[in-house]
């Protein structure tokens, strides 16, 4: 494809992504599903197509997506639920890969254990992007979001390591379990160490991160640097290290440190940049997934229909049935072997509150959140030429992606509503207002300390002005808490006074902005000063809640 063709394709793709986002906002349909279906439709139309380059995806697309997801995750929540996260992202991925490998070697004509394990590794890791996008809109409870997020961040490293071992076993002619385990431990440990080192290197550059432009530049290169350190040919000559795991670990630590080591302006700009990158990359990925369908289907001409159906049945059967079976089984294990929610050993007084096993509804939700996506296709497309049953494995992988992405993606939100699984918005609103109140109380105490140290009349006046403003905010938060304490439902009650105040503030901001524009148009205000004053109004508008009843 020429450069003009690539540019035309990219421009068209961006237009489609923007249009799909508008449609999803109006209808509530998952964007990932719509983009995938559009990609399939476009692939059968005449015109330029882009083939999925696995190295490009694994090097330039996957690290930024995982890094941004890690930045938005909670290191503390994932650490608290680490036993369950490890159960899903490591043990379940291993079991899935081995079962599919055994199934292929036993029932698929001519298939080897290495080929089956390779396929199992590619289809084992769920892609949390689609599930979380739908789940958040459906108001999924926070603990389920944490588990889906934690699993999605760590399972890619497990899957890619298993895939590497399977390909190496094919080249060597045998599958050595001991060597495979050793390689997995080395790869994972190395990835964690590199991720920690990169995160602490970023922390040492905290002086640069106070400037918004420097903070953006550092944030953009961090995931690529972490991945490159692990995956470059020089390091691979001596040891195999998981670049994906390094990116995730670095993102979790940097995200945890960000409130402490950056300014407000840096955080606002970095967050905006990453939202745009995430939006465009995810859209491109799902369009590319759909476009690979015709190419993969054409590669099945050499296989008998019975072979294709058996391979597909084994793959889909393991992927769809093993996950709920695993989640149910782990709830019955003794406590000493338990992989249930909140697996850390803590005092018995906290067990009931923080370590309750998953309920039946939560097991169903987690089971249905196992959508596969870009990592599955990128991984299966890395299989080298000459790998046994390469085209069959590609077809099974893309079939799993389509079945889970479309089937589970379209039904996830209705299923959550039917199960009644929603976050307790009242408790979240209480917590926010309690935290706001605590912050204001500390600020008032700090004013007292400043007043004791200063005696200038002008400074006393400034202190009293600030005290009045803080006390007004504290009274507002306390009134909000009093209202929330009386609520018995999980939904935040509407407050006509609060919504009226927001409406008035928005109207005032709009009036100020219109007057500034009139000054500019009349020649009384230059554009530089207009942009500066508009930024002040933009920041005021930014802190207004989009959903007044949810504040």
From TrEMBL:
GO terms for biological process: regulation of intracellular pH; sodium ion import across plasma membrane. Keywords: Antiport, Cell membrane, Ion transport, Membrane, Sodium, Sodium transport, Transmembrane, Transmembrane helix, Transport. One of its GO terms (molecular function) is sodium:proton antiporter activity. Residues 18-418 form the Cation/H+ exchanger transmembrane domain. The keyword Membrane applies. The keyword Membrane applies. It is a multi-pass membrane protein. Na(+)/H(+) antiporter that extrudes sodium in exchange for external protons. NCBIfam families: a_cpa1. Belongs to the monovalent cation:proton antiporter 1 (CPA1) transporter (TC 2.A.36) family. This is CPA1 family monovalent cation:H+ antiporter. It comes from Actinoplanes campanulatus.
């Amino acid at each position: 494809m020429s450069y003009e063709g690539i540019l035309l394709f990219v421009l068209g793709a961006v237009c489609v992504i923007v249009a799909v986002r508008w449609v999803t906002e109006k209808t509530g349909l998952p964007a990932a599903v719509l983009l995938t279906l559009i990609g399939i439709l476009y692939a059968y139309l005449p015109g330029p197509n882009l083939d999925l380059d696995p190295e490009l995806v694994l090097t330039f697309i996957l690290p930024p997506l995982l890094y941004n997801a890690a930045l938005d995750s909670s290191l503390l929540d994932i650490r608290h639920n680490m036993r369950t996260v490890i159960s899903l992202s490591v043990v379940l991925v291993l079991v899935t890969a081995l079962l599919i490998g055994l199934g292929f070697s036993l029932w698929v004509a001519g298939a080897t254990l290495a080929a089956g394990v390779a396929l199992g590794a590619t289809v084992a890791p769920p892609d949390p992007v689609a599930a979380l996008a739908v789940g958040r809109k459906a108001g999924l409870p926070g603990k389920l979001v944490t588990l889906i997020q934690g699993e999605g961040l760590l399972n890619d490293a497990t899957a890619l390591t298993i895939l590497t071992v399977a390909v190496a076993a094919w080249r060597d002619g045998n599958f050595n379990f001991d060597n495979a385990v050793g390689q997995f431990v080395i790869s994972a440990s190395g990835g964690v160490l590199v991720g920690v080192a990169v995160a602490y290197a970023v922390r040492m550059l905290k002086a640069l991160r106070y400037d918004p432009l420097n903070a953006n530049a550092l944030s953009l290169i961090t995931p690529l640097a972490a991945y490159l350190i692990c995956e470059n040919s020089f390091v691979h000559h001596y040891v195999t290290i998981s670049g994906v795991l390094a990116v995730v670990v670095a993102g979790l630590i940097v995200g945890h440190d960000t409130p402490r080591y950056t300014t407000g302006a840096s955080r606002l700009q970095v967050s905006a940049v990453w939202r745009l990158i995430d939006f465009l990359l995810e859209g491109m990925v799902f369009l590319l997934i759909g476009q690979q369908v015709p190419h993969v289907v054409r590669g099945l001409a050499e296989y008998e229909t019975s072979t294709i159906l058996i391979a597909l049945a084994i793959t889909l059967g393991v992927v769809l049935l093993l996950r709920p079976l695993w989640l149910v089984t782990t709830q019955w294990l003794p406590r000493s072997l338990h992989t249930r929610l909140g697996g850390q050993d803590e005092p018995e007084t906290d067990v009931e509150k923080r370590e309750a096993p998953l309920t039946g509804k939560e097991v169903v939700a987690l089971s249905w959140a196992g959508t596969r996506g870009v990592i599955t296709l990128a991984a299966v497309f890395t299989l080298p030429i000459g790998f046994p049953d390469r085209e069959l494995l590609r077809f099974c992988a893309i079939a799993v992606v389509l079945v889970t992405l479309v089937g589970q993606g379209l039904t996830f939100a209705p299923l959550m509503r039917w199960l009644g699984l929603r976050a307790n918005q009242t408790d979240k609103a209480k917590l926010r207002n309690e935290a706001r109140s605590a912050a204001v109380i500390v600020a008032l105490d700090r004013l007292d300390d400043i007043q004791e140290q200063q005696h200038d009349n002008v400074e006393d006046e400034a202190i009293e002005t600030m005290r009045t403003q803080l006390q007004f905010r504290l009274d507002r938060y306390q009134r909000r808490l009093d209202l929330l304490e009386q609520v018995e439902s999980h939904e935040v009650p509407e407050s006509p006074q609060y919504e009226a105040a927001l409406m008035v503030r928005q109207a005032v901001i709009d009036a100020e902005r219109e007057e500034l524009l009139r000054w500019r148009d009349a020649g009384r205000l230059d554009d530089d000063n207009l942009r500066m004053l508009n930024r002040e109004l933009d920041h005021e508008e930014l802190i207004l809640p989009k959903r007044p009843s949810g504040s």
